[in-house]
Amino acid sequence: MAQAGKGKLNYRCPSCFMRDLDIDMFYDKEKKEYYCIRCQYTGTEEDVLAKNEMVRFRYRDMYKRFTNFD
Amino acid sequence: MEKFVVNIIHRPEMVPEYAEKVTGHGKEEDIGRDALLTESLDIFRLQQDCAHKYGLKTTIQMTYASLFNEEAISIAKEHHEKYGDEIALSLLGLPCKEFREKYKTKDFCIWMFSMEDKKSIVDDVFGKFYDIFGFYPESTGSYYMDAELVNYIKEKYPSVKCAVATCWEEGPKAYHTCNNSWYTFMDGGPWNPWIPSKQNIHAPAANEAEDSGIVAIPHLSRDLLACYDGNGSNFGTHPQNVLRGMIYDTKTWEYPYLYNLIDQYRSLEKYNNGYAYNMMFVGPGWLNKMGRWEAPFELLKKSYDDGMAYYGKLKEEGRLEDMTMAEFADYFRSKKTYTEPECALWRDILYGSDKQLFWYCDPYMRACINMDQGGALVDLRPYAAKLKWEVGIGTPHIQDASYPFLIQEKYRAGYFTHYAGEGTVRSAKLSYHGEEVDLCLCRTKAKFSEEMIADGKKTRILTLEPVTIEFYDLTVKLQTKIYFEEGSSEIRMERTVLEMSNPEAKVELNEYMVACYGTTEYTEDMSEITLTCKGKNEDKTIAYAYKCREEEEAGASSVEAVIPPVDTKVSMRMSDEKAVGYIKEGYAFSPMFTLGYKTTLMDKEVVSTWLKLEKAN
Q1: Could you tell me where the beta strands, DSSP code E, fall in B486-549?
Q2: Separation between Cα atoms, residue B346 and residue B190, nearest integer Å
Q3: HSE on the CB side for B432, CA within 13 Å?
Q4: Which residue among B22, B231, B351 sits closest to A10, beta carbon to beta carbon?
Q5: Is B267 in contact with A69 (Cβ distance < 8 A)?
Q6: Does A58 touch chain B if contact means CB atoms closer than 8 Å?
Q7: Distance between CA B106 and CA B108 in Å, rounded?
Q8: Selection from B214, B250, B116, B228 nearest residue B170 by Cα
Q9: DSSP 8-state secondary structure symbol assigned to residue B22
Q10: Is domain B364-615 given the CATH code 3.40.50.720 in the classification?
Q11: Could you report the per-residue pLDDT of B75-97, keeping only the tens digit for each?
């Protein structure tokens, strides 16, 4: 198996992101998947993007524009 | 008068942070690659164009590497002439072939070098700047500037009046986020500009004798709630940091949070005599053409342009004044007194919690009050100690530049602990017939007000909405007011019983402070600490030895802890002269100490407790 590389974008591990860790993932061409070198997450690009949406659950006011800060 | 000032800073960094490491993946390291240099200048131009397009002036912080690049120098000179941009000098961006050949190291953070190297690098960089531009800069900076470095610069190059000097709450949290590979430990400083003392850069000067001679500004204006709890690098006036936090709509590429953050900073004028501040300082590595993590270049570029456009719109509407760093330093000194504090009653604008924190910073302390915990004091830095804390190679703190805390609820548990022991917090407990309630569990909100005292000084007051404490057969309605008297080095907490369901009842009030000292999550040796309960006739003392001992004294005039490793004395006193003062030693599984007072409260009674910080020696 050849060495892993980076994908066209430099995705972070969504599982680690949820615990406040920014870890670059690497791409396994043979398995066609990204994998985390710290935890056990693996996933396709589609799965990474879906999980990245999921990690935003804590930002309940992400779309809200505030006008009052009292 | 309302005034919102913005500093926009750009640096032509010939080897942008991340660019070589990230986009160069799979290639041998070569920091002199032509492609890298070309891209770096392209990014610098792009950032400058964004600002100028919206009518904003910038501070161009030349890096050491850029002083070897004719094109970067020529752009700086041209933009100074055409747009009034300030040509300044950064101590970031040291890496380049010339630097590595001369200093034989890959270190790049100025505060981590030995003092000898710091002086040599400063002379080298300032000298080269002078040779090129014919003058010495008025502004400089890095992510962190230690007091010894600033003192040297000010002595040797007195023209310097402003510096980017710290990154708010960038410490262990940032380190962890980077998989324990980002060594910027600089927690515990001010979040908005300040006049640093000669003794410690974090601690504002209390008077002219302590004045370092510069105005310090933070690197970025950071979210005072999100950064306190989470990774600082996701929540600041740095559009690409907001993308890093994934705080944007992936379909529309919109990020209301960035504008909410800017607007909340604007709103802080209410607490600071009409003045508010923002700074944006995006390093070129964040506008990499290869994209940054999952954000493509187009999104990186759009977010930077949008950030500048928003500042430009505010300027057009007359609600923002853009200044260079040097201009800002003059303005700041013209309106600031040494003892005037910086205040921020900050609300959650991201998580939907409605939480409120109050941050207070003056020459004697930085303090955080958490309204979600009944107005508990959850972070306390004893600036009164003006702690000498040298950093860099050859000192006891090579990387750790944080100002130590006495209380830090995130690193040392706060109210909630697992299984045994206590965490650091300053709160109060009410007891009645065997039941006990801690005010940390009484969520509330606060309003800010001010009262004039002598010599133009004021007391800043937080008035908390009353909370209801329910015992089995008694209900107590209690209000807390917290007073910060300018120049006093004290925090006064006043409790008023507004109502009791049984007006004859007596409840016990226990005002307490659990504390320790440190800069990280890990405990320090407490053995040098001495606790004293000052009685009417005698003092009772405990020399800390992890033996879980306690002492108390009715009518104690004060309870105190002296903490030699951080040169700090912290004490409490109470308005009720009959109250029982107590001191408690911790033990190995709970390496804390407690100071407190117990008294009884009846309906309509009021009692105040003061916490005071002093230099120990």
Answers
A1: 490-500, 507-515, 530-534, 539-543
A2: 14
A3: 20
A4: B22
A5: yes
A6: yes
A7: 6
A8: B228
A9: I
A10: no
A11: 999 999 999 999 999 999 888 88
State the total domains in chain A: 1
Nearest-CB residue to A52 (from B246, B256, B264): B246
Give contacts of B292 with chain A, Cβ < 8 Å.
10
Q: CB neighbours (10 Å) of residue B514? A: 26
Q: Cα dihedral sign for B417, B464, B443, B579?
A: positive
Pick the closest to residue B368 from B342, B349, B388 (CA basis).
B342
Cα distances from B230 to residues A54, B13, B285, in angstroms, run 18, 28, 22
The helix/strand/coil state of B280 is strand
Average pLDDT, chain B: 95
Minimum-distance CB partner of A21 among B179, B249, B349: B179
Chain B residues with CB-CB distance to A23 below 8 A: 179
Instruction: Flag if B293 and A65 touch (Cβ within 8 Å).
Output: no
Across the interface, of B177, B257, B294, the residue whose CB is closest to A21 is B177
Contacts of B74 (CB under 8 A, 6+ apart): none
Burial of B243 (C-beta count, 10 Å sphere; 0-12/13-18/19+): buried
Q: Is B121 strand, coil or helix?
A: helix
Cα–Cα distance for residue pair B137/B160, rounded to 1 Å: 6
Residue type for position B183: Y
Q: Is the pLDDT of residue B21 over 70?
A: no
Task: Indicate if the pLDDT at residue A7 is higher than 70.
Answer: yes
Place of tokens 């456009």: B309
Contact A66 B250 (CB under 8 A): no
Is residue A6, in this structure, part of any structural domain at all?
no
Q: Tell me if B3-345 shares its fold with B364-615.
A: no
Domain for residue A20, yes or no?
yes
CB proximity list for A28: less than 8 A, separation 6 or greater: A1, A4, A34, A35
pLDDT of residue B37: 73
Helix, strand, coil percentages (3-state) for chain A, rounded to 5, are 25, 20, 55
pLDDT digits (tens, 9 = 90+) for B343-391: 999 999 999 999 999 999 999 999 999 999 999 999 999 999 999 999 9
pLDDT of residue B178: 95
- Compute the radius of gyration of chain A from its Cα atoms: 15
Q: What is the C-alpha separation between B240 and B261, in angstroms, rounded? A: 14
CA dist B388 and B610 (Å) reads 26
The partner residues of B543 in beta bridges, in order of sequence, read B530
Residue B39 predicted with pLDDT over 70: yes
Contact status, residue B391 vs residue B408, Cβ threshold 8 Å = no
- The two counts, helices (H) then strands (E), for chain A are 2, 3
Q: Do residue A52 and residue B348 have CB atoms under 8 angstroms apart?
A: no
CATH fold of B3-345: TIM Barrel (3.20.20)
Contact indicator for B261, B223 with CB cutoff of 8 Å: yes
pLDDT at B239 over 60: yes
- B557-616 tens-digit pLDDT: 999 999 999 999 999 999 999 999 999 999 999 999 999 999 999 999 999 999 999 999
* Domain that residue A45 falls in: 14-56
- Sketch the domain layout of chain B as residue ranges: 3-345, 364-615
Residue A5 lies in a domain: no
Share of chain A above pLDDT 70, in %: 99
